[in-house]
Design brief:
- This protein is of the alpha/beta class and 349 residues long.
- It has ten helices and twelve strands.
- The protein has helices at residues 43-55, 78-88, 98-107, 144-158, 176-190, 205-214, 242-256, 275-290, 303-313, 318-348; strands at 7-9, 14-16, 30-36, 64-70, 92-96, 113-119, 137-142, 164-169, 193-198, 219-222, 261-265, 295-299.
- The strands form three sheets. It has a seven-stranded mixed beta sheet. A three-stranded parallel beta sheet has the order 9-8-10, with helices on both faces. Strands 11-12 form a two-stranded parallel ribbon.
- Helix 4 runs parallel beside helix 5 and helix 9 crosses helix 10.
- The two termini are 39 Å apart.
- Residues 1-25 have low confidence and may be disordered.
Amino acid sequence: MDRRAFIGRVAGGLAAAPLVAEAQQSGKVYSIAYLTVRRSMEPLTSTFLHQGLRELGWIDGQNFVFTTKAAGYKSERLPELVAELVRLNVDVVLVDGAEAALAAKRGIRTIPIVAMAIADAVAIGLVDTLARPGGNVTGLSFLGTELIGKQMQLFREAVPSLSRIGILSNPANPTHEARLREIDATAQTLAVRVERVTARTPSEVNQAFAVMAQTRVDGVLVLSDPMLSVASPVSTIKRTKFTADANALLKLAAERGVGGLVIGLPLNMDGSEGPRCQSTRQFGANLLKLKDFPILYWDERMSTLAVEREMIAHDLSRAKRDKVVDQAAAAFILQGVLDALARTKASTN
């Protein structure tokens, strides 16, 4: 599969190898498998994957069938799942995350393997080189190790008072060790102390943040990992009129493949609902008339105050705080939802 070379792109640190649509054999139904260390395929991934396949003429249930094998964040299950895919004799295997990619490479000799955005594919031994991957592996890779030092520098610029930073990583992720070494080297040049914490499962994430809170870190850098879900702000939509607001929101949701919305509910301090809550719920009800998707209302009390305190503690000026407080508060609310979901999933396993 050398002909399907990884093509390096400096801007963004990506390396891409899109599959070329080949002539479909009349009447044959192909089998596409998806292997992940997660519990399932992420909704956004599913949306864009199936959309891209449809644009190339591939329709689920007509000319291909889709099989998902998920390890449920138990990486030790990956070899077993790979063996199942070999027995099923699927036509191609899509792999999500470095752990799944390496497990597939070790257990699959002839079936094509397509890696989906794997960090440092060469460094972890997934491919020989980006120009000539070798074997039966192709796909996407980004230069995680090379970029992590720049991320540290940008963090320092954003938080001038940064003296101690918490680094959250997953010991089971084979791409993290090289990035941790780069972080240590960069931290020395920036005179920043590094506090490493780890989490192998979603249930360990809250404990990791509790440890960082005890050590009083000035900020946290989370290394990308299929298991770690962290909310990040995208943009701010200034309220005007409902139609304009709804169109802007739905446009952003369509671009991002959003499967549902979390709306902050401005409860009174005693937990009761007042006129502001009624207005918020009416906004959600009107939005559902335009687009039918799940809406979750989430207690937003103290969210703005919480992020304001954090920004003040890190010496951000009022002008800078005013520019980002709405986005930061929205991320704070969404992170609360993600943490609650992680705790729920952990308790059911």
